[in-house]
Amino acid sequence: MSFNKTATAVLIDPVYSVEAWEKLHGPKAFGRKTASFSKIAANTTKYLLSHTTIMSSVMTEDALEDYWENEVLKLAYKSFVGAFNFVEHLQNSKHAKGHIIDAILRKINITPAVWVYFVDLLVATDHAHTQLVADIRSGETKYMSMGCVTDLVICSYCGHHVKEDGNYCNHLKYSKGQFIPDQDGVSRRVAELCGHKSLPNGGVKFVEASWVGVPAFPGASLREIVANSWEGPKTAFTKDASDSGQRKAASSLILPDSSQVIADLHRLLK
Q1: What average pLDDT does the structure give for the chain?
Q2: Which one of 121, 191, 200, 268 is most buried, by most CB atoms within 10 A?
Q3: Is 152 helix (H, G, I), strand (E, B) or coil?
Q4: Radius of gyration over alpha carbons of the chain, in Å?
């Protein structure tokens, strides 16, 4: 049985350009050939597009797994695309502020033999949420946090497998985040290892990214604003509709696991 996990991340500078996003992430990334320059739906609204870093993996010695193992994050990061954008993990669709419309994996070499992956997101926040949009622009709101469901959690210390919420070992119940010496006297940090590289998509699905006040991972931040008034599809989740007819039209723009903007964006990028 899958269960929910959340963690936090920061927005650095609030104004960016589409050209700079393309230069940073290449011609196949979100840019001029995408839906931002095409009317993709008759029923549209305006969004603030933010470039954020949401999380990082960690490389450890071969005998251990890590919190977000390199290979797990590499398998799972694309599930961010189409996920909701919330505030403080209030995971109810009626409280959605927007959607995640792209996710990119960046490999960062620490030494020639050691590297980690960072995940960058393109976050669309509906202009209907005027105070949130103003706070993002001003830098008052600049941190983000991920939310996911995972099929498996492994204790980094004893290797206990947790397959449903609550079935934790004593290390994860009482000592998470602490360092405990192993049988060789080497201090090991107790952590939850989400997913595993042997599982389909790493056993992890990212379901949301929230704007938060306090980050767990300081590097998970807003980096730039890509577009101040991107025109995208109005949805029943990110902007109130005034009548049932509008709600029906808006709902038709949502695919089972992603918004129509994602389908159009990837069609245009092919």
Answers
A1: 74
A2: 121
A3: coil
A4: 19
